[in-house]
Amino acid sequence: MNLDIFNLKGKNALVTGSRTGLGRGLALSLAQAGANVVIHGSKTEGIDDVCSMVRAEGVRAVHAVADLADPASPERLIELTIRELGSVDILVNNAGFLRRAPAVDYSMQDWSDVLKVDLDAVFRLSQLAGRHMLAQGRGKIINIASVLSFQGGVFVPSYAAAKGAVAQLTKALANEWASRGVNVNGIAPGYMETDATAPLRNDPNRSRQILERIPAGRWGVASDLAGAVIFLASEASDYVHGHLLVVDGGWLAR
């Protein structure tokens, strides 16, 4: 087998929400495989550090700050990527957040705020990057979904709704663009060590319940997604379309 099909040398990637957490890990994995990367965050703090780590891999890094709740931000990010790197070959829609509250008390403001970033921005970025990729006849879009794309979760109705929609959007775009050289797929992480899961990990009872259901016996970490994102961003996945690759330690199998 020719392992060069996993090589991303010369490819240009935009990874949203790559200032911290899973996004940072995804960006570094792509850089280690040879891709130039736009590092994005909603604020400046920490972005330069990630850019330095990316450049240490011998590739280019671009600093980008944008609030994806602003409908104008996706266009600015795509334009920045093309201006600085020359193309958008890989888009990783990773940015997202959640707000916890019982459904009966969930505010419409929280509902709207989450959907703007976790769903609306994912569609708009995919649409804009897709236009560019379709014109060049190739491209990889990778949406970061969740095990809550399949399950409802507890106290996170807007997040579950958004991630379910991201799964369906992934399939819808794949149906339209697969024949034109653009792959649209997703990664569905399970329970990972991130800031968003800190309340769960710090709750002894809830953490125990979660760990008891994960066959692997541990929370996932950013590096657990490295193989999945490199595979879906590379030539190795050229015949993979509309798929959600679950990386959950076996959670959904239990």
Can you walk through the features of this model?
There is one protein chain. The protein has helices at 21-32, 47-55, 73-85, 108-136, 157-177, 198-201, 204-213, 226-233, and strands spanning 12-15, 36-41, 61-65, 90-93, 139-144, 182-189, 244-247. The protein has a 7-stranded parallel sheet with strand order 3-2-1-4-5-6-7, with helices on both faces. The radius of gyration is 17 Å and the shape is globular. It has one domain (3-194, 221-246): Rossmann fold (3-Layer(aba) Sandwich), CATH 3.40.50.720. The protein has 8 helices and 7 strands; from the N terminus they run βαβαβαβαβαβαααβ. The protein starts with 11 loop residues before the first strand and ends in a 7-residue tail after the last strand. β5 (139-144), α5 (157-177) and β6 (182-189) form a beta-alpha-beta unit. It has 254 residues and is of the alpha/beta class. α1 (21-32) runs parallel beside α2, α1 (21-32) packs across α8 (226-233) and α3 packs parallel to α4 (108-136). The mean pLDDT is 97.
Strand order of the largest sheet: 3-2-1-4-5-6-7
When the domains are counted, the total is 1
Q: How many β-strand stretches?
A: 7
At the fourth level of CATH, the homologous superfamily is NAD(P)-binding Rossmann-like Domain
Distance between the termini: 33 Å
Structural class: alpha/beta
Mean pLDDT, to the nearest integer, reads 97
* Rg over alpha carbons: 17 Å
Largest beta-sheet characterization? 7 strands, parallel
CATH T-level fold name: Rossmann fold
Per the principal axes of the C-alpha atoms, what is the gross shape? globular
CATH hierarchy, class: Alpha Beta
Helix content: 40-55%
The number of helical runs is 8
The poorly predicted ranges are none
CATH-derived architecture: 3-Layer(aba) Sandwich
β-strand percent reads 5-15%
Please trace the helix and strand order, writing H or E for each element.
EHEHEHEHEHEHHHE
